[in-house]
Amino acid sequence: MSPLLTITNLNKIYHRHQPDEVIALRDISLKITAGEVVALTGPSGSGKTTLLSLLGCMSKPTSGSIQLRGRLVSKLPERFLAQIRRTSFGFVFQQYNLLRDVSVLENVMLPLYPSNQSFRVMKKTAGAVLERFELQKMMRKKVKQLSGGEQQRVAIARALVANPDIIIADEPTAHLDSNLSEILLGILANLNTEGKTIIIATHDPAIYQSPLIQRRVSLRHGEIVEDKNQ
Ligand SMILES: Nc1ncnc2c1ncn2[C@@H]1O[C@H](COP(=O)(O)OP(=O)(O)OP(=O)(O)O)[C@@H](O)[C@H]1O
Fold it and tell me: Which residue range or ranges hold the ABC transporter domain (predicted)?
C-alpha cells in the first residue's frame, strides 16, 4: 500500500544561525500508512511536538520533504496548507485550544465555518458529533464551565467534526485521570476501526503500551532511535 505520509531527510532548526539555535529534528525519514496507529515517544525536548506539527502541515521543515498521499506539501504556501489541515487533519492538543468563553456547540462548529455550509447544516453536523461523545446535554454551556475530561471530549469532537482521515494528538491524556484515559483510548480505537490514521505524541505508558498502538517511534535528541511494530 502506498504511504499516506512520507517524510524524507527532515531537519528542523529553530532560530537558525542565532546564538539560541536549536536543532529540534535531525535527518528524520518515516513512512506512515493509512489506518496505522503510531505513538511518538521520547523524553521531553526530544522533538515529538515538532515532528507532529510538521506531519500535520502546521509548520515547515528547515530542509527535507513531506508528502501527503504522494503530493509534496512541505513547500506549499500557507493558504494551501491551511486548506489541507482543514480537510485532512484533526488536531487534539494538550491544552485543548478551545475558546473558553464560547459555547461547546460553537467551539465544535468552528472547523466547519470555512466550508461555507449553511448554519443549520453546520449545527446539525456538530450536534451529531457531540451526541457521539455524550456531550449533547452540555452543548450550550461555555467551555470554562466544564471539567477537564469534558473539555478533552469537546476537543476531540472538534477535531473530528470535519471528518478528517488523520488524527494528530499531542499528549492527549496529560490532564486526564486513568478512567478518562481509558475512555479516550476507546474513542481512538473506534476511530481507527473506521479507518482513521492516528498519530499520538505521548509520555503516557497507558497509551503507548495499549493494544491500540500498532507502532512505536522513539525519539532522542531529535533523531529516531527506534521504530518498531508492536
Ligand atoms: N518554537 C520554538 N522555538 C525555539 N525552540 C523550540 C520551539 N519549539 C520547540 N523548541 C525546542 O525544540 C526542541 C524539541 O522540542 P519539542 O517541543 O518538539 O519536544 P517534545 O519532545 O515535544 O517535548 P515535550 O515532551 O516536553 O513536549 C526542544 O529543545 C525545544 O526547546
Answer: 5-230
- Of all protein residues, the one whose alpha carbon is nearest to atom 2 of ligand 1 is 14
Q: Which of ligand 1's atoms lies nearest the C-alpha of 222?
A: 14
Give CA separation, 105 vs 114, 152, 162, in Å. 16, 14, 14
**Does the model's ipTM exceed the 0.90 cut?**
yes
With a Cβ cut-off of 6 Å, ligand 1 is lined by 14-15, 22, 24, 42, 44-50, 201
User: Which residues have CB under 8 Å from 138's CB, separation 6+?
Assistant: 104, 145, 146, 150
pLDDT single digits (tens) 164-220: 999 999 998 887 788 878 888 888 999 999 999 999 999 999 899 999 999 999 999
CATH numbers and ranges of domains, the chain: 5-229 (3.40.50.300)
- 8-state DSSP, 210: S
Which residues, in sequence order, are bridge partners of residue 142? 103
pTM: 0.92
Which among 2, 13, 4, 1 is positioned nearest to 64, based on CA atoms? Answer: 13
CA distance readout (Å), 82 to 13, 97, 138, 229: 22, 17, 30, 32
**Checking DSSP bridges between strand 22-32 and strand 223-229, what pairing results, if any?**
unpaired
